[in-house]
Amino acid sequence: MKRGENGDKIIREVIRGERPWTDLRSAGIEVQLQGDRFHIENPHQARAAADIHDLAQGLIAHLKDGRELRSWAFLLQAESFVDWADGENHPAWEALWDAVWSASFGDPISEDAIRLAGKLVQERQSPV
User: Fold this and answer.
1) Which residues of the chain have pLDDT under 50?
2) Which residue(s) pair with 31 in the sheet?
3) Domain count, the chain
4) Which of 16, 37, 109, 125 sits a CA distance of 20 to 30 A from 116?
């Protein structure tokens, strides 16, 4: 099990869609998909900070595969290992979280939310 910074990094990479959710095991978080529910065990209370850009990147990364998008979104709805901190105060939070909610139920994501997520991803990638 990897703890500390490595565990934080793994969690953020899962949120960003850079790694599959099954890799959370490497951060000490056991996740099992049981039917249409996730069972999450986090005995060491691993937790990582993530922001609106991480959420946007994950949404964009999963758009190409509806099944993975739904699993990823469903996991985010059930998780207790991410500290969104000021992300929840960002003006885009509600639109992106609504998109996650829709995706977790297999519903379509609005084009506005996809454009907003794309803008946030590009914002992060642009040099300041």
Assistant:
1) 1-3
2) 40
3) 1
4) 37
